[in-house]
Specification:
Layout (H helix, E strand, L loop, with lengths): L11 E4 L6 E10 L4 E9 L10 E4 L4 E6 L5 H17 L1
Antiparallel strand pairs: 1-2, 1-5, 2-3, 3-4
Length: 91
């Protein structure tokens, strides 16, 4: 997935085969138990964080529907550009 296509934090999505929406609160997160990197980390919407068991890692390709896009401003644009440069340097 292209870094510049990542959804902003605060976005609310439904995952494929999901029954409940989730809200993204982080991007490019690593599962510490497997060292696998995911595009997003989220919590149930509208409940929010209820502990480690209510946090979900997933990739952009797992999204069925986008209900709401989070805040997109100059600060986020700068962050995404810096993140893209970082990942381009790893290739």
């Amino acid at each position: 997935m292209e870094i510049r296509e990542l959804l902003p934090i605060g976005s609310v999505v439904l995952l494929k085969d999901g029954q409940k929406r989730v809200m993204i609160y982080g991007v490019k997160q690593t599962d510490t138990s497997t060292d696998k990197e995911y595009d997003y980390i989220s919590v149930l919407y509208p409940e929010g964080n209820m502990g480690d068991e209510s946090q979900f890692l997933f990739n952009h390709s797992d999204i069925e529907e986008i209900y709401f896009r989070g805040c997109e401003d100059e600060e986020r644009e700068e962050f995404i550009e810096n993140l893209a440069r970082y990942y381009e340097g790893l290739e």
